[in-house]
Design brief:
Layout lengths: L3 H6 L38 H5 L7 H22 L4 H8 L3 H13 L3 E6 L10 E5 L3 E9 L3 E7 L5 E8 L7 H21 L2 E10 L2 E2 L6 E4 L4 E4 L1 H12 L30 E5 H12 L9 E6 L3 E7 L2 E3 L30 H4 L1 H7 L4 H7 L5 H10 L3 H25 L3 E5 H5 L1 H15 L10 E3 L6 H16 L12
Parallel strand pairs: 3-6, 6-10, 11-14, 14-15
Antiparallel strand pairs: 1-2, 3-4, 4-5, 7-8, 8-9, 11-12, 12-13
Helix pairs in contact: 3-4, 3-5, 4-5, 6-7, 8-16, 13-15
The protein binds zinc ion.
The site of zinc ion has 6 residues, from loops.
Protein name: ROK family transcriptional regulator
InterPro entries: ATPase_NBD, ROK, WH-like_DNA-bd_sf, WH_DNA-bd_sf
Family: Belongs to the ROK (NagC/XylR) family.
């Protein structure tokens, strides 16, 4: 698989104005025990009431809320610039130099900011020490359950992937306890590699190929895994407790973490808040944060496919989740009402025409054999891409899949009027053969006459989008609420 580090390295961390909070970050469904030191776990940002509150009556609570908001404003300003002086932060966030200095001192002591040499002449104010986001200390841990793989990674506050672990794993119809125990092993491996670089995850977000509703920690349904009402958050917490060495004992292999050692009892992975989200949602957030788009791309529909097809709608720069958290199930939009049966119980769903296995079957290839001969995520997509050059049956199957996608997408575009449709994951790799069918259906069926050529974009984030979105959602939750990080979580 392509190294996700290269993707993360090349892309800016922040895409939005400082202080803009994305309630679309999935941390609000964190399932782990709350962090008492902070009052709320990472990701659990200010409530809507706090956001909309008229400031301030002079109470301790409102002062704490104000302090949290101002710390977040400063942190977002630094994230947005990469490197910035205190004076420039003050000018940007509209606070006094003295107030910003106090906030910066607190962020430095929390290990969230670091100082990076003198600012260059020409910046606002006297030359001073530039501020950067710390590349040590608090970090985000992302994990992913795929139909046939598992993955975990640690990103620093700058969004750079610093540790990762990956395993092929036939997860379909395996007991969730076993799948999550395997995932826990990868999470521990990635965290240990991160610890050796001085990084300490403050939360975990897991991408799953299924429906995650409003109940924290529960995967309501993942048809392609055979999961129904699986308490994945608590199961992963328990599996992490089993996978970690007991507190205070040396790590299994001390060479992995020469200076940082094993997680302390305070920093144990099984004690972290665990968020769950649908892989398509996290892929769309990765597109928003890491996709390299202009800041004015605020409304888009992101579509990706593995065996299933997932979509997510970003509205005003935030994820649109719907009333029950189920928005974006494009794969189960009917394309032909009397078509083949779908694992969801309906017939003729888009997934039965444009999912990987459906395309392989339409091309006369056996999905099971293709998976065995081209294992791992991307294996079947690579097979289709290779064959498309020479095999007319594969090209025809992909064109038909593109038409089915275009048909389903035209309904979504007519309802939601996005600026763009972005093809991610395997769809990006197959886009040369899919796009003609997609665009021809959109041209025929989008009725508002504002659907320009080129409004279907191909993602550059790659197949690791959901994993990167998961890890970066933890980082975003820290930027939104810096007080969620406890001082003792800093590197010594
Ligand atoms: Zn279906």
């Amino acid at each position: 698989m392509p190294d996700p580090r290269t993707l993360a390295d090349a892309t800016p961390l922040s895409d939005r104005p400082p202080g803009h909070r994305d309630t679309g970050t999935p941390g609000h469904r964190a399932a782990g025990p709350p962090e008492t030191g902070a009052g709320r776990p990472p990701g659990q940002g200010p409530t809507e009431a706090e956001e909309n509150a008229v400031p301030p009556v002079s109470t301790a609570a409102s002062q704490a809320g104000m302090r949290r908001r101002n710390l977040s404003l400063v942190l977002h300003a630094v994230a947005g610039h990469g490197e910035i002086s205190r004076a420039a932060v003050a000018a940007e966030v509209g606070l006094t130099r003295a107030a910003v200095s106090t906030l910066v001192e607190e962020l430095l002591s929390l290990g969230l900011l670091a100082e990076a040499g003198l600012t260059r002449p020409g910046t606002v104010g006297r030359p001073g020490t530039a501020l950067v986001l710390s590349d040590r200390g608090p970090a985000g841990l992302g994990a992913e359950v795929g139909v046939d793989h598992l993955a975990a990674c640690v990103v620093d506050l700058r969004g750079k992937v610093r540790a990762s672990a990956y395993a092929e794993a036939p997860n379909r119809d395996h007991p969730p306890e076993r799948v999550l125990a395997d995932l826990a092993g990868l999470v521990v491996r990635a965290a240990r590699e991160g610890a050796a670089a001085g990084l300490r995850p403050v939360g975990i977000t897991v991408a799953v190929p299924g429906l995650v509703g409003r109940d924290p920690g529960i995967v309501e349904r993942a048809s392609n895994l055979g999961w129904e009402q699986v308490p994945a958050g608590p199961l992963l917490t328990a599996a992490l407790a089993d996978a970690e060495p007991p507190a205070g004992t040396p790590a299994d292999d001390p060479s992995h973490a020469p200076s940082a050692g094993p997680p302390s009892s305070a920093g144990r992975l099984s004690g972290l808040p665990i968020g769950l989200d649908n892989e398509a949602n996290l892929g769309a957030l990765a597109e928003l944060w890491l996709g390299g788009h202009d800041r004015d791309l605020r409304h888009f529909l992101h579509v990706s496919a593995e065996i299933g097809i997932g979509a997510a709608l970003v509205v005003e720069g935030r994820l649109f989740r719907g009333a029950h958290g189920h928005a974006g199930e494009l794969g189960h939009v009917p394309v032909r009402p009397a078509g083949p049966a779908c694992p969801c119980g309906a017939r003729g769903c888009l997934e039965q025409y444009a999912g990987e296995e459906a395309v392989l079957r339409a091309a006369g290839l056996d999905p099971a054999r293709a998976a065995a001969e081209h294992p791992g995520p991307g294996g079947r997509v690579r097979l289709l891409a290779e064959r498309a050059g020479t095999d007319p049956a594969v090209r025809r199957a992909l064109h038909q899949a593109g038409s089915a996608l275009g048909l389903a997408l035209s309904g979504a575009v007519n309802v939601f009027d996005p600026q763009k449709v972005v093809l991610g994951g395997g769809l990006a790799e197959l886009s040369p053969w899919l796009l003609p069918g997609i665009e021809s259906e959109l041209r025929r069926r989008v009725t508002d006459r504002h659907w320009p050529d080129g409004a279907v974009a191909v993602s550059s984030v790659g197949r690791e989008g959901p994993l990167l979105g998961a890890a970066n959602s933890v980082v975003r939750s820290v930027l939104d609420d810096p007080t969620s990080v406890r001082p003792r979580e800093n590197p010594s």
